[in-house]
Structures are given as structure tokens and as C-alpha cells.
């Protein structure tokens, strides 16, 4: 009997093609609430494939008694209730390490743009204001201290590039890692870093980790970079700190609310630079994240072996 795979969001063309070519699979799409409800009511669902927006909460899982696997084309699992999926014996699959290089590149690009004031400098030329070039002189990263919060796959890549730029890398992580960088206590890192870059998942432990107290410990010249998840920072307090110049600048690819409210006061600040959650959205990485995920989903549905480490809740499910 064919298996039904429900897509909550679009996936890369190559990944969709793989699904289309799988003669033992039916593709169903539930890109909006109405179509999702209709698919659920009319079909048995064996697998869900989503990216970062599709919410897979327990209320959805309880309507899908045959669901065997929830797959995330990407890494972050904050849109999936992993704990309830595990309780229900559902495998949660992601694409570990698939986007570390491209997100590390994006992080360093944001850091350089902010540090060198390039985002303002480029606009200045487009506005025919060459003569204003002294206004946006910025500073170099060489010789500065970069504090990395979260030394996982992405943190390690950022550290490597930053080292090549001549930065002094220090880090804080929930576990000390076997890396050639100095581990600092959280507060010490906040106090000593010239720029601080976040590389943590969003969980109940990391939500609002960068709160008013953390912000108050940073240098007035500090730059904060966030390519992880918006919810790790208390955005109101961040706005207050930036507006009052208690820290110098903020560059991010993520916000607590995406897209932001059109009146969000953070976005237009002069010392703020934001891209629209496209850190992993390069042609190569988008395709890799999606094809890897589809391949593993198909393997699981066919009772074949998926790639090692792709089942996030493997240990909790007791499957080694
Ligand atoms: O893999 C992740 O966690 C990402 O943030 C990638 O971006 P996405 O959420 O898929 O748009």
C-alpha cells in the first residue's frame, strides 16, 4: 500500500522530484489551514515534511494516528513538539549539519557589514552621497574579541572563519567543547567580548537568554549578531539598549516575530541590520537540506536505514 506524505511547506525542486519519482508514495499538500484540515480529514497521513514555519504541535499529531515520522528540512526543531512526538512514538527527523557552512558565512557577513558600517555605506553611494564617505567609517574585526554563545556545528564554523580574520575567539556553551578557543563563564563572555554571536537552538532554557541583565553587562561598543532564533533575545530590552546606545549595534537574520510587525521599532534603527531569515537559503544548501530530509523520510517509511544521526529523538525512542 502506498504511503501518504503530507507537505506543510514547499520544498526544493530536486526534493519534490524525488518524492514524485517514488512510486510507493503519494504527495499531499497542506500549505494553509483549510487544505491541511481537508487532507487530514480525507487521508491517512504516514509522514509530515515541513520547513521552519509549519507548526507540528500535539493537537495536530493527535488527529494523525498513523503518523510515523515528522521531518524538518533544516536543523531547528522549535516548530515541532518533539517531546509529544516522542511520547507518541513518532520519529523526528532533521538534516543535521546541512546548513552550518552557509549560516556561518551569513553570520560573518552580518558581522562585517555591521562592524564596517557597510549597509549604510552602500546606501550612501546609491543615494549619490559619495562625499559623505567620512560618515560611515566603521572599524575592523581584526584583533577584536568575538564571543560565541553555543559552540555546536555552526558556532565551530563561525569560530574558524573569525580566527582566519584575526579575531580572538572565546565561547560559552552548555558543554565545554574540545576546541582551541577559550571557554568563559557566561557573564565574563558578555563583559569581555567586542561582538557576541548566538548559535543556540530556541528551547525553554534559551528563551530570552539575552535579557536586560545580560545586555547591561555588555560593553557600550558591543555588537550583537543573531542568526539562530529571535526568541533567544528579549527584543523589547534589546530595542531599549540599542536606542539608548547601551550597546553599539545589532545584526540578525531572525526575529522573535517573522515577518516583523510593520511598526516594529527595532527594524528602522540606524544601528540595526536585519535580513529576512535567509541564512540557509542558498541554492546549494536549500537543495541539500530538503533532499537529505526527503531521502531519510523515504528510508524510514520503507523500513530501510536512514542516514546516521538524522533521527533527532532516536535515543529517547530507544532505537540506539
Ligand atoms: O535549519 C534551520 O534551523 C533554519 O533556520 C533554516 O532556515 P528555515 O527555518 O528552514 O527557513
UniProtKB/TrEMBL annotation:
Chain ranges of the D-isomer specific 2-hydroxyacid dehydrogenase catalytic domain: 5-306
Annotated family: Belongs to the D-isomer specific 2-hydroxyacid dehydrogenase family.
Domain D-isomer specific 2-hydroxyacid dehydrogenase NAD-binding: start-end pairs: 108-279
Identification of the protein by name: Phosphoglycerate dehydrogenase
Transmembrane segments annotated in the record for this chain: none
GO molecular function terms listed in the Swiss-Prot or TrEMBL record: NAD binding; oxidoreductase activity, acting on the CH-OH group of donors, NAD or NADP as acceptor
One Gene Ontology term from the biological process aspect of the record: amino acid biosynthetic process
CDD domains cross-referenced by the UniProt entry: PGDH_4
UniProt key word Disulfide bond: no
Entry keyword set: Amino-acid biosynthesis, NAD, Oxidoreductase
Annotated source species: Maribacter hydrothermalis
